[in-house]
Amino acid sequence: MQHIDINEIKSWDRFYRGNFINSLSGFKSVSLIGTINTEGITNLGLFSNIVHLGADPALIGFINRPIAAAPHTVNNIEATKSYTINHIHRNIVAQAHGTSAKYADGESEFDAVGLTPIFKEGVKAPFVKESLIQYALELVEIVPIKHNQTFLVIGAINHVFIDKDFISKDGFIAIEKAGSITSLGLDGYYDTTHIARYHYAKPFEPVIKIDE
Fold first, then answer.
1. Residue 123: what pLDDT?
2. What pLDDT, on a 0 to 100 scale, did the predictor assign at position 114?
3. Given phi > 0 = left and psi -120 to 50 = alpha, else beta, which region is 111?
4. Following DSSP, what letter does each residue of the chain receive, concatenated?
5. Which residue positions in the chain have pLDDT lower than 50?
6. pLDDT, position 106
7. 199: closest CA among 212, 182, 187, 183?
8. Least C-beta-crowded within 10 Å: which of 19, 107, 116, 203?
9. Closest residue by Cα to residue 77 from 144, 5, 121, 142
């Protein structure tokens, strides 16, 4: 096994280094975040750092890059307190990746990549019509991360739109039934395959599969 220390990593070309570090943490969830500004212009951003923070209350977090690099999503959320998260499937992965381009103020990624904004009662922000699992959140807190000028955006789930066939009898969402994909690094996308589920593990007891 090759040993690579941080000094060698720092010596690499920045694009090579970026690909390496972004791939090192492994597969990640990837979704589209929909927002709208106070002038009514929609925005759609691709995020692969979305993380579950708690079930009660139901909280989801994501990391937003520094404001200078990616201002639209976090500014819109701060202004309206509302945003949506939309799963990506194989049929829309190219359009989803296209939203990562740097569009100017006043330009909507929905229009640019050919995805459809849809508004639902009680939610200010747009959903992605083509997405098969969608949920809306209300802003709870934006936490600055001083070390690299990024932000942890924390939201509370208040609406979920999902086909009931994707939900198992115990509440587990089999997202592979929706074709939800995963990502690796900055530009790699992968299908998912279910392997198994297991009962709650207890010390020194056999690990037992859940019958499905």
1. 97
2. 97
3. alpha
4. -----HHHHHHS-HHHHHHHHHHHT--EE-EEEEEE-TTS-EEEEEES-EEEEEETTEEEEEEEPPTTTS-HHHHHHHHHSEEEEEE-BGGGHHHHHHTTS-PPTT--HHHHHT--EE--TT-SSPEETT-SEEEEEEEEEEEEETTTTEEEEEEEEEEEEE-GGGB-TTS-B-GGGGTB-EEETTTEEE-------BPPP-TTS---BPP-
5. none
6. 87
7. 212
8. 203
9. 142
Which tens digits make up the pLDDT trace of 41-51?
999 999 999 99
- Domains belonging to the chain, first-starting first, are 28-190 (2.30.110.10)
- Residue (of 46, 10, 7, 45) closest to 185 by Cα position: 46
Question: What is the distance between the alpha carbons of residues 9 and 32, in angstroms, rounded to a whole number?
Answer: 31
Dist CA 159 CA 50 (whole Å)? 17
Report the predicted TM-score, pTM, of the whole model to 2 decimal places.
0.94
Phi and psi at 32, nearest 5°, equal: -100, 130
Instruction: Enumerate residues 6+ apart whose C-beta is below 8 A from 187.
Output: 97
pLDDT of residue 48: 94
CB 74 within 8 A of CB 153: yes
- Report the alpha-carbon distance of residue 198 to residue 171 in Å, rounded: 14
User: Which of 208, 197, 156 lies closest to 174 in space, CA to CA?
Assistant: 197
For residue 57, what are its two tokens?
Answer: 């209350």
How far is the C-alpha of 159 from the C-alpha of 126, rounded, in Å?
13
Whole-angstrom distance, CA of residue 156 vs CA of residue 137: 5
